[in-house]
Amino acid sequence: AQSVAQPEDQVNVAEGNPLTVKCTYSVSGNPYLFWYVQYPNRGLQFLLKYITGDNLVKGSYGFEAEFNKSQTSFHLKKPSALVSDSALYFCAVILPEGGYQKVTFGTGTKLQVIP
Amino acid sequence: GAGVSQSPSNKVTEKGKDVELRCDPISGHTALYWYRQSLGQGLEFLIYFQGNSAPDKSGLPSDRFSAERTGGSVSTLTIQRTQQEDSAVYLCASSLGQGPNSPLHFGNGTRLTVT
Does position B1 have pLDDT exceeding 60, yes or no? Predict the structure, then answer.
């Protein structure tokens, strides 16, 4: 069975500081990994994905994530946080042979950027 | 439309009543998914439609839940004899294809409250 853990329910960071939202996964195989962001009363928006290749993936709004196979992690990062980055962030994993019906989402991390 | 459209955005219903939730996917997207987002939990897969194939209903939590997709486009999720534990945000998503190279596009969801 596959699983995703987002160990922090909430992350607070001052505007302008770097931010990290943590994600670890457990799968038997090579995973596809995703980050989505959810603003209040909105659906999830795709940020970035790792499928294969370069372990550092760059996505929308200046976000990036690093796939670390040995630590089974896929932490989301941004060098300088904006107040507008405040939202709920979800990490997700699927196996290549699975589709989105087999996707496992984490429980989400609320990011609060403090002005 | 430009994105995935869901209606209603909010629905309050009495326990025991039936409800219908509607999803209008992005034009041309062959894959359509329903997920449920409960407070403090990740997204839970409910059902998946792909083209004219038989839907994958493996995520439906009980036989009170059903869904259909007419003409390969609009989908309706029906919950019969609603229970309080059905209260959640129901999210619809569509994608151009089945695999992870086709990102999921989510609607804004329907917030269902069963009183």
Answer: no
